[in-house]
Amino acid sequence: MTRQAFYPGSFDPATVGHIDIIARASRLFDRVIVGVGIHHGKPPLLSGAERIAIIDEELARLGLADRVRTVTFDGLAVDAARTQSATAIVRGLRDGSDFDYEMQMAGLNGVMAPDIETVFLAAAPGMRHLASSFIRQVAAMGGDVSPFVPSSAVIRLTQKFNN
Ligand code: PNS
Description:
alpha/beta; 6 helices; binds 4'-phosphopantetheine
């Protein structure tokens, strides 16, 4: 049986922390499907296509493209996971506030979809400070985001704020 995991997120933009979680999940599961959430109430900086392209370019660079694919999704993560035939939802945990939020979400998702297990991966020690919202702020103010995001995101963020 092929074990597939669904990794949902906003990825606006994906950070090197997200990419690390994807790479590590790809060693635990036969296939990882990264779900880029399209939220109606949360207008993103980058379009769905841009967010997908950033992740895809980095996966290709890391040689992970055969084990991981990216999709957009709209609606519940558990529904998207089911559509993708995933039996697990992967989420990264950076700190205590992530833990509280993620436990609630995992609890609700577990009631809605008891057949889908949430699997938490602890963020790598050097990546616990990374948050897409802060990275957008740094980029908007002309700071160097290259330590925090894949190079494919640096280019897109620079273009976004220079135009
Ligand atoms: O990167 P984020 O912002 O932490 O990602 C949040 C995301 C997209 C994973 C989360 O908001 C989500 O799953 N949204 C879809 C709606 C849903 O399923 N909500 C959980 C019900 S409790």
